[in-house]
């Protein structure tokens, strides 16, 4: 009996030792699987599909990250291009408005000068031919314009106030008429016609009475 009991105890110790060896061997054979994100660890005891799924999800995450960065860069480029186009449009609009303002100012100055020239020529016509027929009044204005085109002076005012040419300009009568503003409407219209190029006397540069040469209109001869 003693021999059997001893044998049984030896057998039981051997079985326990075998079980422990198996446990130690299993533990030593445990394999760790590191996911692509370097944070999650899987042992060999876990389903392999889980490790593969995590690796695949990590790859997809990287692709999403790259796509997001690409989208961000594209959005920045589009924004920069839109801002550039908006700035160019703003500058173009400012340039257009500046050009319109310049042209408007030029037109205003032109009208002012034209108005001043019209009044000056009308006053001279009144002084020289206020008592003459309308065609004679236009003819006086035409002589002044012919002199301007011929280069007597560079401006209408220069032609009229040129020394020794028109008596009313030399005596001061012309200035008094201008200051009073008392100019008949027929003389104003005659000035407008002459300024627009109407000339009943061709290229005549002189006029006066008692000359008896050239074109006679009313009391004046134009030549």
Structure description:
- The structure is a single chain.
- This protein is mostly helical and 223 residues long.
- It has seven helices and five strands; from the N terminus they run H-E-E-H-H-H-H-H-H-E-E-E.
- Strands 3-5-4 form a three-stranded antiparallel sheet, with helices on one face. It has a two-stranded antiparallel ribbon with strand order 1-2.
- A hairpin with a 2-residue loop joins strand 4 (215-217) and strand 5 (220-222).
- Helix 2 packs across helix 6.
- The protein is rod-shaped, with a radius of gyration of 55 Å.
- It starts with a helix and ends with a strand.
- 17% of the residues are buried.
- The model is unreliable at 15-44 and 46-54 (pLDDT under 50).
The gist of it:
This protein has 223 residues and is mostly helical.
Helix and strand run: HEEHHHHHHEEE
Look at the structure and give the mean pLDDT: 79
Strand order of the largest sheet: 3-5-4
Gyration radius over CA: 55 Å
Distance between the termini: 171 Å
Count of runs of 4 or more consecutive helical residues: 7
Question: Largest sheet at a glance?
Answer: 3 strands, antiparallel
What percentage of amino acids are in beta strands?
5-15%
Derived from helix and strand composition plus strand pairing, the structural class reads: mainly alpha
Oligomer: single chain
Low-confidence stretches: 15-44, 46-54
Helix content: 55-70%
Shape: rod-shaped
- Total count of strands: 5
């Amino acid at each position: 009996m003693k021999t059997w009991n001893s044998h049984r105890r030896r057998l039981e110790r051997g079985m326990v030792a075998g079980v422990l060896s198996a446990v130690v061997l299993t533990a030593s054979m445990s394999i760790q699987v590191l996911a692509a994100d370097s944070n999650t660890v899987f042992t060999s005891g876990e389903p392999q599909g889980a490790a593969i799924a995590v690796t695949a999800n990590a790859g997809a995450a990287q692709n999403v990250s790259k796509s997001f960065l690409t989208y961000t860069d594209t959005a920045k480029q589009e924004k920069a291009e839109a801002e550039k186009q908006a700035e160019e449009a703003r500058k173009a609009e400012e340039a257009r408005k500046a050009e319109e303002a310049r042209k408007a100012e030029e037109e205003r100055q032109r009208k002012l000068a034209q108005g001043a020239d019209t009044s000056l020529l009308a006053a001279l016509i009144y002084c020289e031919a206020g008592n003459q027929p309308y065609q004679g009044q236009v003819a006086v204005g035409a002589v002044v314009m012919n002199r301007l085109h011929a280069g007597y002076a560079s401006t209408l005012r220069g032609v009229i106030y040129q020394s020794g040419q028109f008596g009313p300009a030399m005596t001061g009568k012309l200035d008094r008429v201008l200051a009073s503003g008392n100019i008949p409407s027929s003389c104003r219209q005659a000035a407008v016609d002459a300024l627009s190029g109407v000339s009943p006397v061709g290229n005549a540069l002189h006029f006066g009475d008692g000359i008896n040469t050239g074109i006679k209109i009313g009391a004046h001869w134009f030549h």
